[in-house]
Design a protein that fits this description.
The chain has one domain (2-13, 22-335, 350-360). It has 14 helices and 7 strands. The chain has helices at 2-9, 25-35, 38-49, 60-79, 97-105, 118-127, 171-187, 192-196, 212-219, 244-247, 270-286, 288-301, 313-316, 344-360; strands at 138-139, 150-151, 153-157, 207-211, 223-227, 233-238, 255-257. The strands form 3 sheets. Strands 5-6-7 form a 3-stranded antiparallel β-sheet. A two-stranded parallel sheet has the order 1-2. A hairpin with a 5-residue loop joins strand 5 and strand 6. The longest helix has 20 residues, at 60-79. Pfam families: HNH_2. InterPro entries: HNH_nuc. Residues 1-25, 40-59, 80-101, 324-361 are annotated as: Disordered.
């Protein structure tokens, strides 16, 4: 889009000062636009080109606010599933956003249950043949061939179940919840129905059985299922930060074909997987994933600002020190506990090895 390119090319980045990171507004918006689905592309272009209250186009400050709104009200809520949840969401500068927020708040949407849903897990296990959808390893907790490779399986949500949890009597929490879903459905229109009926988060189409370690990487958007154009066939992609151990069991060509093994349950929705893949790829290519990991991990470990003052305050304000939520409501009780973090030197070696694996495949 010529007009979009012209507007972004005219953007004047802020000069780095006071320890603030470089202004990546232009690159952020350009890359995001290339990756969004058609409806999301159209809406992002409008947000970049159409000014608030009849103004011809947003100024540079409005574009910076738009980026922070997407970071705090879409990327961090998706990325922080199972960990810290955002409390401060920067409002979008686009016209009419206040009315949209009030509209979704007025629908009296009910949060989903925090309790495990054993029936839902059972349905997914039957549908997926009691196997990991990525590696085809059998569940160690269920009958399997004697010579079969086995693992601990968990039911992984594609759209995080934490996005359906909020305090309906807490005005601030309801407001935060509404702002997040307004962003999600604006840039991923397929999520509109889910935004108004959160029970759709806990359905078979939004879940798949995965090895417990792969599930963690999937939840952190370091592993995605990318559509190949063949119905129900996906190419598995992994990004820097994904442990090399679990991916050794992936198919050599990284191709998997989903099918219903038992029952009449629907397969994971390709559009939900597309949303997940889009966000995962953007987080990797933009470097946003790594910076968000640092902020989220800092709060998990310290619960506050770094003494050195090195914490990115703007990013930090978008993450709270609320109690940890489980990464998934359907985790197997026998699942192994997370291992200790590796040292930085090991992480660097691991990242190089993973990049090599992706290039080789």
């Amino acid at each position: 889009m010529v007009e979009l390119d012209q507007r972004l090319n005219s953007y004047v980045p802020l000069e780095p000062s006071g320890g603030k990171p470089s202004d990546d507004t232009k690159g952020f918006l350009r890359l995001l636009w290339t990756m969004l689905p058609p409806g999301g592309k159209e809406n992002l272009a409008k947000d970049i080109l159409k000014g608030k209250d009849g103004e011809p186009r947003p100024d540079d400050e409005a574009l910076r606010q738009l980026v922070q709104s997407i970071r705090s009200g879409l990327l961090i809520p998706m990325k922080a599933q199972g960990g810290k949840t955002p409390t401060e969401v920067t409002p979008s500068p686009r016209s009419g956003v206040e009315d949209s927020v009030e509209d979704i708040k007025g629908k009296s949407i009910e949060p989903i249950s925090r309790n495990p849903h054993s029936k839902l897990r059972k349905n997914c296990l039957e549908r997926d043949g009691y196997k990991c959808m990525a590696t085809h390893q059998y569940s160690i907790d269920h009958p399997h061939p004697k010579s079969a490779r086995t693992t601990y399986l968990e039911a992984a949500h594609i759209i995080p179940y934490t996005l359906g949890i909020f305090q309906p009597l807490d005005g601030k929490d309801v407001d935060r919840h509404a702002k997040i879903w307004i962003n999600l459905r604006r840039y991923f229109p397929v999520l509109r129905a889910m935004s108004e009926d959160l029970k759709l988060i806990n359905c078979e189409e939004n879940m798949l059985m995965l090895d417990s370690q792969l599930h963690k990487g999937f939840g952190q958007f370091k592993l995605i299922f990318e559509a190949t154009g063949v119905p129900n066939q996906y190419r598995i992609k992994t990004f820097t930060g994904m442990p090399t151990g679990p991916i050794q069991n992936l198919p050599k060509k990284r191709l998997v074909l989903f099918r219903v093994h038992q029952g009449h349950w629907k397969l994971p929705d390709p559009q939900f997987l597309q949303v997940h893949a889009c966000i995962g790829t953007f987080l990797h290519m933009s470097g946003q994933g790594e910076s968000m990991d640092k902020v989220i991990n800092h709060f998990r470990e310290c619960g506050g600002l770094a003494p050195s003052g090195s914490t990115n305050i703007e990013e930090t304000l978008a993450v709270s020190s609320l109690s940890l939520l489980p990464a998934n409501v359907e985790e197997s009780p026998e699942s192994p506990k997370p291992k200790m973090k590796q040292r930085p030197a090991q992480e660097q070696s691991q990242a190089k090895s993973l990049d090599y694996e992706n290039k080789r495949l």
